[in-house]
Amino acid sequence: MSNDLQQEFAELSTVQDEKLKVQENDFSQLKDAESKMVKEALDILTIAKSTDNPRQTILKAIAEYAKAKNIPVLGAKVEVLQYLSPEWKKEVDREVRKYLAQNNLFEIVQLPQGDPRRTEYIENLKILNQEGYADYLVFAIHHVDKPKQIEGILIYHERFLANIKKEFEQENKDQSFSEKEKYVFGNSFPEAKKYFEDLKIKSPNDYNYAIKIAWQNLFFAKKIKQTYPNLDCDEITLILQKLVQVNGLQIGDYIQSDGHVSLKLDGFPLVLDMYDSKIRSIIEFGKQVGYKGNYFGSYYLQSKEGYYLAVYSSEENDSPKQILGYKKSMGDNLTLNTNISNLLYDLSYDLFQLIKSFSIPLKIKLYELMLEINPNDANAHYNYALLLNELERNEEAEFHYLSALKINPNDADTHYNYAHLLYNFERYKEAREHLGKYKELIGQKDAYYNYLNDLLKQKNF
Amino acid sequence: MSDLLLLGLKTERKNKQLKRLRDFRKILLLKIEEKEEKDAEKLLKQL
After folding, report:
1. How far is B37 from chain A (nearest CA, A)?
2. Is pLDDT above 50 for A309?
3. CA A287, CA A265: separation in Å to the nearest integer?
4. B43 touches A at CB < 8 Å
5. Rama region for A407: left / alpha / beta (φ>0; ψ in -120 to 50; rest)
6. Which residues, other chains included, contact A411 with Cβ-Cβ below 8 Å and sequence gap of 6+?
7. Binning pLDDT at 50, 70 and 90, where does residue A418 land?
8. What is the DSSP string of A322-383?
9. Relative to the CA of A425, which of A157, A261, A334, A411 has its CA 20 to 30 Å away?
10. A335 touches chain B (CB under 8 A)
11. Interior CA angle at A232 toward A228 and A236, to 5°?
12. B36 touches chain A (CB under 8 A)
């Protein structure tokens, strides 16, 4: 072995050790926090039980808590009461359901900024989004045009959540290993089948584990698809998050890109595409969604400001070192991506296509709401800028392009579209700079680049 | 790889939730105390 390689291995092993140490530490911290939560909840219930009317005491205290934190009472219940006991959780679920059915997004966006009902809605939405109710928002937003059905749909969803774990455990017990094996092979593309076959020879233990994981993921993917055939990728992502985070199911990480959601089969270079519920190699999946690297990490993380930290990365960049670096540099800024603005964004495009009468003015109101929910949402700024651009409200468009770039300076599309706007403004020098940045970020010249490049050349820039 | 980040985030979330429960407990105790004081006053008046 060459010295260089030896050194590289030594470094890698140090990094791996460090990673393991951090992981062990993190895990014990998590367990510690979890058991403290359980104890705290029990203490609260015991204290309340010592009064004449425990329920009333808790409700009065939560109203006081909401006042102290300056948040709506529903938000306070979501923040605190859902964690007290399964009974309280059920009650909070019911209230959230009712609230979302009674407060229709179409109505809320029409209210002027500063309207108390609108402000309360925004506060509640932020809390619901953070505290495990993003999936409720999926349905409330998806079915915004059918407000009377929302409550029923949410009840159906609650039943789905309550049953899926039981159903999984039952089927897991009922099916033999060879049945699972057959099922996995029946739902795999040839390259994935080959991977399984090779693994069976090389490492039977790993093979057994791979079949187990693949079967498990297939079970959840098919169930979600079957229960909710009409949800798009952002919506499915949020349902998956709920299953992973709240219901504690062991589903692999998921990958989301351009209309695809896939589950990465934990520890194996395989993914399960939610669209066809088939297992393929991660390389093939990458090719399909247009990425060039040969390994794709699945990061559904965003900074507090709302942009992705890392969505995909090739094997080369996806080192433990880098991830540790991320953690260190981002610290408190990391939060899970349960961003509802993607849902609102989808809504503004899909739904308003169907309901023409709402179209532009409502779209604008929706973007205003999105930016009120999260003023640092680069995506919302960018898409709002595109819309304003289309409407020839160019000064406003420029403001939102610049806001998007301030939050996420490395978004190629924003640079391109802003360059185009600058061209229209006859600010050719600046347009050239942003076009240059676009080329740099996509790493090549493409048809879009050539088009604007030609226009600028004609103007001698 | 992202498992590591997720673990840290889960812990951070749990700690935040724990802090909220603690804040709530303080308010709950305060409310109970207030009520007890009021009840005691009432009782005194009745006597």
Report:
1. 13
2. no
3. 18
4. no
5. alpha
6. A378, A382, A404, A405, A441
7. very high
8. HHHHHHHHHGGGEEE---THHHHHHHHHHHHHH-TTTHHHHHHHHHHHHHHH-TT-HHHHHH
9. A411
10. yes
11. 60
12. no
Q: How far is CA A340 from the centre of its chain?
A: 8
| Separation CA A80–CA A62 (nearest Å) | 8
Taking only the tens place, the pLDDT of each residue in A331-348 is: 333 333 334 555 565 555
Give the pLDDT of residue A354: 47
B41 to chain A, closest Cα gap in Å? 17
pTM for this one?
Answer: 0.76
Query: A440 at the B interface (CB within 8 A)?
Result: no
CB contacts under 8 A, A 159-198 vs B, are none
* Assigned token pair, A300: 């559904």
Alpha helices (H) along A262-303 = 282-288
For A34, which of B14, B22, B28 is closest by C-beta distance? B14
Q: Which residues contact A150 (CB under 8 A, 6 or more apart)?
A: A97, A100, A101, A139, A140, A143
ipTM: 0.87
d(CA A199, CA A262): 22
The pLDDT tens digits of the residues spanning B22-40 come to: 999 999 999 999 988 988 8
- Kindly report the nearest CA distance between residue B20 and chain A, in angstroms: 7
